[in-house]
Amino acid sequence: MSNIGSYEERLRGFDWTIARKALDWDESRDILNIGWICSDRVCERMGLADKTALIWEGFGERRSVYTYDDVRVYSNGFASFLAGLGLEVGDRVCIFMDRIPSLYISFLGVLKAGCIAQPLFSAFGDESLEVRLASAETRAILTTQKHVKKVRKILEKLPSLELVILVEGESEKLREGEILYEMEKAPRVESFEVRASGPEVPSVLHYTSGTTGMPKGALHVHGSIWGQALTTLWVLDLKPDDIYWCTADPGWVTGTSYGIIGPWSLGITQCVLDSGFTAERWYRFIQENRVTVWYSAPTAIRSLMREGDEVVRKHDLSSLRHLASVGEPLNAEAVIWSQKVLGLPFRDNFWQTETGSIMIANYPGMEIRPGSMGKPFPGIEATVLDLKTHAPIEQPGRVGLIAFRPGWPAMFREYWNKPDVYRSKFYGDVGSKSPRELRLDPGVWYSSGDRASIDADGYFWFVGRDDDVINTGGHLVGPFEIESALIEHEAVAEAAAVGKPDEVNMEVVKAFVTLNPGFEPSGDLELDIMNFIRKRLSPLAMPQEIEFTEKLPKTRSGKILRRYLHALEWGEDVGDLSTLEDD
Amino acid sequence: MDDIKDAVLEYVVDEYVDEDDDIEVGYETPLISSGLVDSFSMVSLKVFLEKRYSISLPDNEATPEAFDNVNSIASLVRRHLGQG
């Protein structure tokens, strides 16, 4: 029997207080701080101090195991250390490292210290890092010897960044002002008094990309726990004896909401693999750790499909009992493949950085319609809005904007210092309402910026983004950020970045560029520009193809028409070109 | 002396290893499985090979396993040059 039981039954009279009951929450004893909930509470209230919290494996057979008591003590250590450095409640602390144990445990320590955790993907180049740290006025960064060099390059441009802390490395390699704090070598901190708690206390700041402007920080609060814990129970179906593997990196929201907060709030054993992707390594990881619940992404699943079935047969994957997927739409072929080869279907779900928790899902026990995202989570009112009128569409199968009634627990509270951008995501009587007013307004809709249709039985079917944001391998990449970096290359005069279809990653970045005088198109130049972006921004943002062109399509007012280039790449109707600049 | 292997090694060191990294990359050093080169960055390596040797590497051959060290990459290139 699954945790959710009957989906239809759960819809009736749903109330989010059920999450408190599911956690056996006691208002008189419990502290609403995610760092405390995921460690101290599991040890003390749930009596699971000796239970394994984390099985970690790295490249080259490196392996370590941590109990919940280890997680409690080491996160106390981080919290105490950060507080001792003078960091105050509400300060932003960036976590910038590979998927090593210190990442997961320092995340809880930052939260216990009352600071806001700002995890960033460790493959980000120095420019991507700088933009996000500058925006958040981040005061401290936790990193490693491997990644600190990117911080050093930009440190002078970031006056707010006072503290550079390495969680591993060699003390003799530290530069002036850098601090080394290794959790397992530091004195054990048996108790730490959590410095901030409550449903509206800020917890996590995740940066996400948009069509225009630089990435924006979606701010979450400790009250998100109700959404994350309940969806972990009902969608991921985690139970006390499970061994859970979430393949997402905590630099992205899936890696925090379901790679840390959801499973650890419930006292689940989870495992992490921090090494490069190969099918053999992944299957061996499942086999050796007897993984039971696996939460991954369509890109990874399609990569595994491409490696063939033979490598699957070489491994014993019989421990698996439930599979889920998120990041971009899971194609029907992948669902059918996993049913055939693994004996279980991957169950797709949908949500985004801003929603903080799963919004639409294929639940255990529910009939899967391969290719569909599933149905809204209980307590979530979801619809699709007409693309022009923004009124809810009643007619099955008609495509509109995915939208939700605001107010669910894990909903983001604001875009960091960007109230106007927050407002722009809502439809209805928005006026000049504040983020808080909008979040509590039952008359408006929040739109995720995606298009979908709903069939006659209430299943949602993803169509694509409603804007120019590129979803590559489940990660949103902003074209503006790429274009801004492209024109910093000495050869590039103008640039446009769009997504082009890709069998594994759904879409990848393609750039159209015009060249400055004195530069000629060549294979070497294409490669040079690709690597320039890879190092400055990230491998995800690197154009996988560059087309040199004499001129870019523009409106008469001079704005580059990305949608025209996008339509050409996807073989779609280019639409109304009346505003196109004349030749 | 193997020109292909040395050219690939030089490219990997130049593009994926920082000067102050304590990493010694050789012909057998794992690239993909170690995380030194991620799957997205692998594309620029593939483009380098295709342009340098005027070959086309189909996706089903440009796999993480085939790209996992300089020796296996050089073998793949040689096959496409008709030398394998």
Describe the structure.
The complex is a heterodimer of chains A (583) and B (84). With 583 residues, chain A is of the alpha/beta class. Chain A has three domains: 7-361, Rossmann fold; 381-465, Luciferase, domain 3, CATH 2.30.38; 471-570, 2-Layer Sandwich (GMP Synthetase, Chain A, domain 3), CATH 3.30.300.30. In chain A, strands 2-1-11-10-12-13-14-15-16 form a nine-stranded mixed beta sheet, with helices on both faces. Chain A has a five-stranded parallel beta sheet with strand order 4-3-5-6-7, with helices on one face. In chain A, strands 17, 18, 20, 21 and 22 form a five-stranded antiparallel beta sheet that branches. The longest helix of chain A is centred in the first third of the chain and has 17 residues, at 68-84. The N and C termini of chain A lie far apart (65 Å). Chain B has one domain: Orthogonal Bundle (Non-ribosomal Peptide Synthetase Peptidyl Carrier Protein, Chain A). The relative contact order of chain B is 0.19. The model of chain B has no long low-confidence stretch (mean pLDDT 88). The A-B interface holds A 59-60, 98, 123, 146, 149, 274-281, 303, 306-307, 472-473, 503-504, 508, 523-524, 526-527, 530-531, 534, 538-540, 542, 544 and B 15, 18, 20-21, 30-41, 43-44, 47-48, 51, 59-60, 63-65, 68.
Q: Architecture of the largest domain in chain A, CATH level 2? A: 3-Layer(aba) Sandwich
Please estimate the helix content of chain B: 40-55%
Largest sheet of chain B: none
Question: N-to-C terminal Cα separation of chain B, in Å?
Answer: 17 Å
